[in-house]
Amino acid sequence: MEGVASGVMARKVVGAVWLPLVFGSLLLTSALGDRIKVGGNVGWTPNVNYTEWAAKQHFYVGDWLYFVFDKHYYSVLEVNSSNYETCNDREFITNITRGGRDVFQLNETRPYYFLSSGGYCWSQMKMAINVEHHPPPAPSPSQSKNHSPPLMFPQTVSLSVVLAMALSAAFMFL
After folding, report:
1. Residues 6+ apart with CB under 8 A from 21
2. Distance CA 9, CA 50 (A)
3. Which of 9, 56, 76, 89 has CB 3.0 to 4.6 Å from 96, enough for a Cys bridge?
4. How far apart are CA 95 and CA 139, in angstroms?
5. How many Å apart are CA 174 and CA 169, to the nearest integer?
6. Which helix (H) or strand (E) is 42 found in, with range?
């Protein structure tokens, strides 16, 4: 009977620790930016109008671009505006290509330019985007009546804050 009781207690402790950690990781992920799959369901491939696709998106500081492509044929290079316009893949800023499922974080408010090397840029495998700051949250109806300023939440939450929240919540269940 003692073994059963200790097994039940162990499951409660594990549940009490993992539940807040999962919640905390979701909070951290949403605070650090969205993952945007470039090209939507099509991914990073020739003959897709990425200018049209990007015009329908919003890109904010902290977001991650997720490039999905066949690394045996295509690549992802960050380039400057003139190399973007001329499809020059020799003088790139960053080679993002790793394994065909690659991410790139947008860390600054500025235009970014991407293309694929090997002549695929001429098959529309290029994309220009403009990254902005997140818009401030809209005031709630009660705040606008009182004319009080909206509550501002930080755009990023440190991992230590999330872990501290998770651990404190875990001890509440013990």
Report:
1. 163, 166, 170
2. 54
3. 76
4. 41
5. 9
6. none
Q: How far apart (Å, rounded) are the C-alpha atoms in residues 22 and 110?
A: 33
Residues 61/134, Cβ–Cβ less than 8 Å: yes
Alpha helices in 78-133 (DSSP H): 81-86
Asked whether 65 and 102 are in contact (CB, 8 A), the reply is no
Report the alpha-carbon distance of residue 157 to residue 151 in Å, rounded: 16
Residue 44 and residue 68 in contact, taking contact as beta carbons nearer than 8 Å: yes
Q: Would the pTM count as exceeding 0.85?
A: no
For residue 44, give every residue at least 6 positions away whose Cβ sits within 8 Å of its Cβ, in sequence order, or none. 38, 67, 68, 69, 74, 76, 116, 125
Distance from chain centroid for Cα 69:
18
